[in-house]
Amino acid sequence: MARTIKIDPVSRIEGHAYITLNLNDAGKVEDAQFHLTQFRGFEKFCEGRPFPEMPALTARTCGICPVSHLVASSKACDHLLSVTIPPTGVKLRRLMNLAQIVQSHALSFFHMSSADLLLGMDSAPQQRNLIGLLSVDPQLAKDGIRLRQIGQTIIEWLGGKKIHPGWMVPGGVNEPLTDERRLAMLAMLPEGLEIAHRTIDLFKQLVSRFDEEIEHFGNFPTMFLSLVTPSGGLEHYDGLLRIKNAAGEIVEDMVPPTEYQRLIGEAVEPYSYMKFPYYLPAGYPTGIYRVGPLARLNNCDFCGTPAADTELDAFRALQHGKPVSSSFHFHFARLVEMIFALERMQQLLEDPTILATRVRARARGNANEGIGVAEAPRGTLIHHYKIDDDGLLTWANLIIATGHNNLAMNLGVKQVAAHFVDGNHLREGMLNRVEAVIRCYDPCLSCASHAVGQMPLKIQLIDARGVVVDELVRD
Amino acid sequence: MSRVQPPGPHKIRVVTLQIDGRDIGAREDETILEVARENDIPIPTLCYLEGLSTWGACRLCVVEIEGTTRPQSACSTCVAEGMKVITNSERLERYRRTILELLFAERNHVCSVCVSNGHCELQQLATACKMDHVRFKYRNAPYQVDPSHDLFRVDHNRCVLCTRCLRVCDEIEGAHTWDVMGRGVECLLITDLKQPWGESQSCTSCGKCVQVCPTGALTKKGTAAGEMEKHGSFLVYLTEMRGNR
Lengths: 475, 245
Ligand code: SF4
Ligand code: SF4
Fold this sequence. Notes:
The complex is a heterodimer.
Chain A: E1 17-23, E2 29-35, H1 42-46, H2 54-61, H3 66-81, H4 87-119, H5 130-136, H6 138-159, E3 168-169, E4 172-173, H7 179-206, H8 211-216, E5 223-228, E6 240-244, E7 250-255, H9 260-263, E8 264-267, E9 276-279, E10 289-290, H10 293-299, H11 306-317, H12 330-350, E11 369-376, E12 379-387, E13 393-399, H13 401-404, H14 406-420, E14 421-422, E15 425-426, H15 430-441, E16 457-462, E17 468-474
Helix pairs in contact in A: 2-3, 4-5, 4-6, 4-12, 5-6, 6-7, 7-12, 10-12, 11-12, 14-15
Chain B: E1 14-19, E2 22-27, H1 32-38, E3 62-65, E4 72-73, E5 84-86, H2 90-106, H3 121-128, E6 145-146, E7 152-155, H4 164-173, E8 178-181, E9 188-191, H5 208-212, E10 218-220, H6 234-241
Bound molecules: iron/sulfur cluster (SF4) (2 copies).
């Protein structure tokens, strides 16, 4: 007798990632549910507001990847304006998006995950953080801090020292780049690249220690969704949608982002505030797919910058050219993307047209519906707005990376749990691994973003009769 | 509220008074605020705007006058011989902060996404008066945005009812498009007889109201967060060209 457990939202512990594991009659893990409360009612909140406010409004709602929301939202607004954005405006936005990839991946890899990799999954939680890392490998910790700083500095220099992220606006950006700033940015990049190379070399040495994790870390076949350039290259800002299946075959290709609704359906589950997007033609939940660094590298034909392409070959070799399916390799993918982002930023900054002063197109709402899609560090981000003739929002839909990965995260947790649940008990060491699986996706939960310390986590084991038989809580 | 005129024969005299302990000479038809500003003594204001009639509604310019128990508004009180004025005291600071907190609690101010962020007089006042939090419960009442005008937009969420827009439209442009409807907390700035602004017959689309509005309530269309910088300097200019009529 299998039972469905409904969780009352108020019973959730504030700031904890809450997971329930359901056992079947045989005492095996039947289902795992990762309860997310993010983005509740946000769309409603926007209704009635003038659309030019949306970039700042959405950027403020998510404190973790504000730049990604700025990009996707500005692009959705561009669509509402129905004008062509000046090329330099596009390049500057690209630059900021890449800087965001660098700083966010650095945070994820160095601050949150490298301690797991270096100290092992079973090390004491007090050690498994940046501070612990400092005592074991101070160089790596310093590298992490510096790389993140490079990304953040570039974002700050572009966006201005102001408190608000108002630089990216519908139609482009509101201030051109000065040559002084351009040179200062360029000067930081070689150091960034050096760090990125050093880190990827270290990762390759460490990776063999984690065969068990690689095998059980959200290692299951799914489809992958991401943007690619019109020629199939790695893309983070513009481009077209591509979906590959687990066998590496292209299922959908060169789909204009404005047609995302043809590809993506959104299911609702009673236990989560977050929707469950799935590949529409395959149905729910068969249409499970993943987004993010892993998806982007699996999907693209090439990166388009020399060092990143070399690393992409190494990444491909992991599965002999087939899509890499272990979520563990999100880490590897992030490191490759960091190299790509740094190289690409260098190219953009060396292009003299980056200094052009026409960076914004001005117009008012010329369409009633706008869709903006970009690749955030965590994956494809979709903003979709409808406005009335006076430019006020009447409807909004946002699909964020953590949403796309929702199904996969649940499956990942289930997989780990099945491996680490022993009868009616939750085995020690399991919390760490569940956390590590979730961290692979780098979900934008505020509780997942603590740079120092661990994720507050609560796991309940529920047997087939619906009785809580074991519970682990960590604050 | 119109300025309180000194009684008696209409020959303007010069009086001496003290502001914050400084001896100052001034014309008797000047207000405390005018005299203080001429002498670089700062007094915070919100509804007051040089070039427009005095309204005296926001009460931020309250000062202490020796011999009176109630603080008086500096914008609407004329100087007098021997007057002793204090522009800053613990009590005044507290009053001003409370006024600002009430303004923030009354409507919906979300600075980080507001068009006026970084260029807003209300925000600057909050900083200047050291208001760091709001002790009152926010009303969270929903207010409309009227985007019907071709060039401008009014967002009642950000309006502080200073009536600068009303006065500049009436006194300088001569159109009198704006009015205040309702009482107390129900007060609402309206265009014509509460038509959508875009349908107003009297509005000349001159934009003066937008430029004098101290907050993000009146704004140019198409501005994103933090992009609305106001330029009110035309006002002094215009009044001067008209010989202060
Ligand atoms: S009007 Fe001023 S105080 Fe109000 S939200 Fe806008 S910036 Fe903030
Ligand atoms: S709209 Fe602006 S100028 Fe008019 S009363 Fe409101 S805050 Fe004052």
